[in-house]
Design a protein that fits this description.
CATH architecture: Sandwich
CATH class: Mainly Beta
Organism: Thermomonas brevis
Strand content: over 45%
Helix content: 10-25%
Largest sheet: 5 strands, antiparallel
Number of domains: 1
Protein name: LEA type 2 family protein
Order of helices and strands: HEEEEEEHEEE
Number of helices: 2
Length: about 160
């Protein structure tokens, strides 16, 4: 009788352990500039890469980011990408932005000289985990862009 109860208890514990499902982890996302292309009218096409490091899909609702070069603020990325990005994946949202005069001059100088350009991306990204509540994350990313051979006016 005791042996039978022990088997039933062990089976019940085993069955209870199977019910929890996969771990759902929400991690801080990241943002970076994949490419900036200067248009003929002086505006920029900015390819913003959004990384979802969570174990579940997230909808990237909005960004409030500032691009700065070494001489200060260059442009704002106040966007509503409305991108659904799968778990541990990334996607790119491209937007046309109006740069500030200092940013326009700095990128023109870098392109004319064929040199790279360091940048800082700072601000926030708002995203909603699948089945969860919307959350805002602060973002700060420092990186560099280099001229793209064969693509005049583009930095990656």
């Amino acid at each position: 009788m005791i042996r039978r109860l022990a088997c039933i208890a062990a089976f019940a514990l085993l069955l209870a352990g199977c019910g929890s499902g996969p771990v759902r982890r929400v991690s801080e996302p990241a943002a970076s500039i994949q490419q900036i292309t200067v248009r003929a009218d002086g505006r920029w096409d900015v390819a913003l890469r959004l990384n979802n490091f969570s174990s579940m899909a997230m909808r990237f609702d909005s960004t409030a980011l500032e691009i700065a070069f070494d001489n200060g603020s260059a442009a704002r990325l106040d966007l509503q990408p409305a991108l659904d990005i799968g778990p541990e994946s990334a996607d790119v949202h491209t937007a046309t932005v109006e740069p500030l005069p200092a940013g326009r001059a700095r990128i023109a100088s870098a392109l004319a000289d064929g040199r790279g350009l360091s940048y800082t991306l700072r601000g926030s990204v708002t995203a909603t985990p699948l089945g969860g509540k919307q959350k805002r994350w602060d973002i700060k990313r420092e990186s560099a862009l280099s001229p793209v051979p064969g693509l005049p006016g583009a930095l990656r």
